[in-house]
Design brief:
Blueprint: E1 3-7, H1 19-27, E2 32-39, E3 45-47, H2 68-72, H3 91-98, E4 104-109, H4 119-129, E5 136-140, H5 143-152, E6 157-162, H6 169-175, E7 180-183, H7 190-198, E8 202-203, H8 211-220, E9 224-227, H9 230-243
Parallel strand pairs: 1-2, 1-9, 2-4, 4-5, 5-6, 6-7, 7-8
Antiparallel strand pairs: 2-3
Helix pairs in contact: 8-9
GO biological process, one term: lipid metabolic process
Pfam families: GDPD
Keywords: Hydrolase
Amino acid sequence: MTHIFAHRGSAGTHPENTMASFIEAARVHADGIELDVQLSKDGVVVVIHDETVNRTTDGTGWVGQMTYRQLRKLNANYKFKQYGFCPIPSLQEVLEWAQHTSLLINIELKNNLVPYERLEEKTIELVEQYRLASRVIFSSFNHESMATCHQLAPHIETALLYMEKLHQPWDYAHTLHALALHPYHRAVDRLFVEAAHANQLLIRPFTINKEEQMKTMFQYEVDGIFTDFPEKAKNVREKTLRSL
């Protein structure tokens, strides 16, 4: 069955990458959550997508130039003001909560633009601390980072994020010991999924928010989708499976 990952939590209905969004994903019984990590100025692994706080919080500035204490003072409720004050979570806070759920956890390392020193090591340490290695997937557009994660923790799954169609990406993925490809959904068709599976790779496209796109991906039998609307995706998956 295709797993449904709540992209940045239930980001279509709640403030992205906040505890409110992750708790909502668990409430609607998503199979997993996806979140983004970066480092604060004082080396804390924090959960936020953009390299600056400008879009999703009431502050301005670069994540890596602010201390964790400074970041925690910002309200990350973005366009969902009805949820009140939503602080930027640390990865530790999310994992401490997630260990009491059955959720899969896709951790995207946001180090393709800002080269955060030791982001891989710090992230792996937290995953091991909460004994969540078997439920975690590391992903990134920075494929060197994924190679580093595999070297440091070969027992934790890594996945390669990318935007454009690639020629036989399974050959490339195998050189990095990645177990999955996470392509932009427009780079995915049925033949691609079949070929990837034949080459022992999992396929999880992003970001699938429209019902027709969801239905198509379920029909392709991809291994997972990332969506801002996990509750909607669950309903579409159920309808699609009934029609097959």
